[in-house]
Write a structure and sequence with these properties.
Largest sheet: 4 strands, mixed
Distance between the termini: 17 Å
Helix content: 10-25%
Structural class: alpha/beta
Number of strands: 9
Radius of gyration: 14 Å
Low-confidence stretches: none
Mean pLDDT: 87
Strand content: 35-45%
Length: 107
C-alpha cells in the first residue's frame, strides 16, 4: 500500500513550500498521545532521513518513519474546508476508534 496526498492537500503543501522557499514534501507519523492512544504528526520536510519510507504523490514526497507506517499505511492526507474551519484531514482505513475531539485514534 502507500501513504498519499489528495490533490487539494498536494496543492496546499506545494503552495506552502513555495512561500517557504524550500522543502521536498511532508513527513507523516504517529505518536503516543490523547485519550484514544495515538495522534498524528505532520511536518514539512526539507530532506529525507536514511530510515524514511518515501512515497511520491502529485509530485511531492511523503516521508514516513518505519515505526509509524503500520498505523498509517493506506492513509490519504486531504485538505478540507468545512465552514470557517480548514486543515489537514487524515483518511486512515486502519482506524478502529477515535476520541470525540478527533485528535487521537487507535487501530
Amino acid at each position: 500500500m502507500a501513504v498519499t496526498l489528495s490533490e487539494r492537500a498536494a496543492q496546499h503543501v506545494s503552495n506552502f513550500l513555495s512561500k517557504r522557499g524550500k522543502g521536498i514534501g511532508v513527513r507523516l507519523g504517529v505518536k503516543t498521545s490523547g485519550c484514544s492512544g495515538m495522534a498524528y504528526k505532520l511536518e514539512f520536510a526539507d530532506a529525507a532521513e536514511p530510515e524514511d519510507v518515501v512515497f511520491e504523490s502529485h509530485g511531492l514526497k511523503v516521508l514516513v518513519d518505519p515505526k509509524s507506517l503500520p498505523y498509517i499505511d493506506g492513509t490519504e492526507l486531504d485538505y478540507a474546508r468545512e465552514g470557517l474551519n480548514e486543515g489537514f484531514k487524515f483518511n486512515n482505513p486502519n482506524v478502529k476508534d477515535q476520541c470525540g475531539c478527533g485528535e487521537s485514534f487507535n487501530v
